[in-house]
Amino acid sequence: MSLRAAAGEAAVTQRSPAVVPVHVGVIMDGNGRWATSRKLPRVEGHRRGVEALRRCVRAAREVGIRFLTIYSFSSENWSRPVTEVKELMGLLKLFLRHDLADLHADNVRVKVIGERDNLAPDIRQLLVDAEALTCNNTGLTLVVAFNYGSRQEIAAAVSRIAADVAAGRVRPEDVDVDMISQRLETAGIPDPDLIVRTSGEQRLSNFLLWQAAYSEFVFLPIYWPDFDKAALLSAIDEYARRERRFGGTTKCPGP
């Protein structure tokens, strides 16, 4: 790192945002395009994406974010080439095996959301171990959305409620927004205040559809491997400029 770059990183580290969202969701997009633009194999983009994830988690802790949800592998990603899916699974295992001890030492709690039944047994065990080791930590909660799809999550929640109604445990008239929220995998976690997506794409791609009802969205024109603390701070700055009304109206100034 050059002296100028080091000085810039130090300045970013010392700066504190005026408003810090409690919960930030991140759609980590653009690994493959980052690699392609540099004439590198796509797997290199995913490897650099893991480095960006480490920077993101560290930055989230430093600025005081309480919940960070990362979209690491969607239920639709299985349609990618078999070799790429295998590489992504390998990177997940590498991240958990190499980084879990550091996350635990930094008081980070890991929670995993997403379907697990169709995952390999060794990956399922790594997810269980990560949650068990860090369950009592009180710092940043890192929510890993892995093999996750929001439509599938909502459908599963509604199915469980329907089963309770059929069994007489719940009355149909008692089904409300809170009941559905409590049946989602994110129960007990506040809805995201801010959702950030890299690569310039401007869509949710089946990520936290229910939970994002009143989230603010920031779309960054950089690929995920280039994400750093400065990028996170720029997204938070944009979030701080927004007026969150939650369906209400803007207060008019007095005469």
Q: Could you characterize what this model shows?
A:
- By secondary structure, the chain is an alpha/beta fold.
- The chain has helices at residues 3-14, 31-37, 42-63, 82-105, 121-134, 150-166, 177-183, 229-241; strands spanning 23-27, 67-74, 109-113, 141-148, 194-197, 216-219.
- Strands 3-4-2-1-5-6 form a six-stranded parallel sheet, sandwiched between helices.
- The longest helix is centred in the middle third of the chain and has 24 residues, at 82-105.
- The protein is globular and about 60 Å long.
- The N and C termini lie far apart (55 Å).
- Mean pLDDT is 90; it is low at 1-13.
Q: Report how far the terminal alpha carbons are from each other.
A: 55 Å
The secondary-structure element order is HEHHEHEHEHHEEH
For the biggest sheet, the summary is: 6 strands, parallel
Which whole number gives the mean pLDDT? 90
Helical content band: 40-55%
Class from helix and strand fractions: alpha/beta
Count, helices: 8
- Strands, count: 6
Form type = globular
Radius of gyration: 19 Å
Cross-sheet strand order for the largest sheet:
3-4-2-1-5-6
List unreliable stretches of 5+ residues.
Answer: 1-13
**Beta-strand content bin:** 5-15%
